[in-house]
Amino acid sequence: MNNVKKIIMIFVVAAFCVGCDQITKSIARDLVPVNYVLSYLGDTVRLRLVYNSGAFLGMGAYLPEIWRTIIFIIGSGCLITGVLVFAFISKTGRPSVIFSIALLFAGGVGNLIDRIAYHGFVVDFINIGIGPVRTGIFNIADMAVTFGAILLFLTALRRQEKEDS
Question: Taking the domains of the chain in order of start, what are their residue ranges?
Fold first, then answer.
């Protein structure tokens, strides 16, 4: 895949994911009271607005603010930039790899926008589960990062299996 196609794919995926992420966060901020749970589909889906100062499952939330800024704003900004640079310097032309990278980039950008706009916090609002088995509270950007990482892993695994056979 040439760089023009990579740019188009990354831009389209990022625009769609970041747009969906920011729109759903805006709706959640307007309609879901802070720390109040709305339950749907027999309590399979819960909406609860949380301003998360940490990372995955709140990790790092209790670090001093300067460290959270360094790690979650500056660090994630560098990581997002690195992911984008990798997409262009990588010799891979596989659409699945570029799509995975685009998802990782988009999710990172979606949460970085929040961290900048909300003084280090990310808006999370979705919780899924059955009974006591539940996910943490997350957002669309988190889903993009998760799906991008899973797809990248599966692509690498499939490539390794082809090389081994």
Answer: 3-157
Low-confidence ranges of the chain (pLDDT < 50): none
pTM score, whole prediction: 0.91
Mark 7-46 as b/e (b = at least 16 C-beta within 10 Å). eebbeebbeebbebbbebbeebeeebeeeeeeeeeeeeeb
Q: How many residues does the chain have?
A: 165
What are the two backbone dihedrals, phi and then psi, of residue 114, each rounded to the nearest 5 degrees? -60, -50
Give which of 119, 129, 123, 157 is closest to 39, Cα–Cα: 129
CA–CA separation, 140 vs 133, rounded Å? 20
d(CA 55, CA 139): 12
Q: Specify the pairing of strand 37-40 against strand 133-134.
A: unpaired
The set of catalytic residues is 124, 142
